[in-house]
Every structure is written in structure tokens, then in C-alpha cells.
UniProtKB/TrEMBL annotation:
Heterodimer of SbcC and SbcD. Gene3D superfamilies: P-loop containing nucleotide triphosphate hydrolases (3.40.50.300). This is Nuclease SbcCD subunit C. InterPro entries: P-loop_NTPase. PANTHER family: ABC TRANSPORTER ABCH.3. Belongs to the SMC family. SbcC subfamily. It comes from the Bacteria.
Length: 166
């Protein structure tokens, strides 16, 4: 393994550790990510060089390829990785936080329990002082998100209205 692959692998391990704190909650303790150190051939025959991921499934006890996750499972895993990366970057930057997060779609792929878990995590970010924007067409979110900007489109153009904004 080259030095650069080793360094990237170590950073990936840090991101995975941070991501798992949230993925554990969002998946109701079902999934955890594992940093895969094995050299596996990629889709184009390239070596993974220790930069692979596996998903530990607590229900089956089997490690899975991330490609086998459903749409909703992929969404929460991707969100957990993005938040984990933000945590690692924040720690590296001496605590300078990434203060705003926008999540665009993906909510329509979640069942009710998983949606609750995701919104718990996003509420925690908001309670911690971060601004969290959700871009979605999922009707259930209207009752769960207190402050909203709604875009309505018509033949003459779009209008913007604020709902629940104090």
C-alpha cells in the first residue's frame, strides 16, 4: 500500500467512525459501516487500495456491499457519511464548524421510522446551532418542519411564501 493510500485510508476510517455515530441511530441500530482494508478490484479493474466500505448488517450478522442497500438505506448511509466528513473537517480545522447543511431529496425513500431517525439527527444539528435546510416534496415533512419556505409554481412564474417563520 502506498503512503498516499495509507493516509487516505486513515482519513476514511475517521470519517466512518464519525458517520457510524449517526448511522446507528438513523438505522435503528441495524447498520454500521466498516472500513475495508482489502484490495478489491473496482468496476474498471482498479485496486481499491484499502479505501473500500462494507456495511455490517446487525439483523443478519453479514457484512454487505454498499451497492446492495435499498434507496432509503443508501440515503441514510450517504447522509451519515456526509455528516461524518463534516465532523472530521471541523475537528481538523480547529473547531471551525460547517454551519449550514442542505439536504436535497431522498426523504421519499424512507419509511416512517427511518424518517423519524433522520429528523432526530437533523434536529440535533439544528439544536447545536447549525442551520439545516431540507429540500423536499414529501408531504409528511410539512407537519414536522416548523419553519418553511414554500415555492409555488404557476404559468406566470413562481412565488415564495414563508410558513411558520417568526
Amino acid at each position: 500500500m502506498s503512503l498516499s493510500s495509507f493516509v487516505l485510508g486513515e482519513r476514511l476510517r475517521q470519517v466512518v467512525d464519525a458517520a457510524n455515530e449517526r448511522l446507528d441511530h438513523m438505522s435503528a441500530r441495524r447498520y454500521l459501516l466498516r472500513h475495508d482494508l482489502r484490495k478489491t478490484a473496482g468496476a474498471r479493474g482498479r485496486s481499491g487500495g484499502g479505501l473500500g466500505l462494507r456495511v455490517a448488517d446487525g439483523w443478519t450478522g453479514v457484512d454487505r456491499d454498499p451497492a446492495t442497500l435499498s434507496g432509503g438505506e443508501s440515503f441514510i448511509t450517504s447522509l451519515a457519511l456526509a455528516l461524518g466528513l463534516a465532523d472530521v473537517v471541523t475537528a481538523e480545522a480547529g473547531g471551525a464548524e460547517i454551519g449550514t447543511l442542505f439536504v436535497d431529496e431522498g426523504f421519499g425513500t424512507l419509511d416512517e421510522d427511518t424518517l423519524d431517525g433522520v429528523l432526530d439527527i437533523l434536529d440535533g444539528l439544528r439544536d447545536g446551532g447549525r442551520a439545516v435546510g431540507i429540500i423536499s416534496h414529501v408531504a409528511e415533512l410539512r407537519s414536522r418542519v416548523p419553519a418553511q419556505l414554500r415555492v409555488s409554481k404557476t404559468r406566470t412564474g413562481s412565488t415564495l411564501s414563508a410558513v411558520g417563520v417568526g
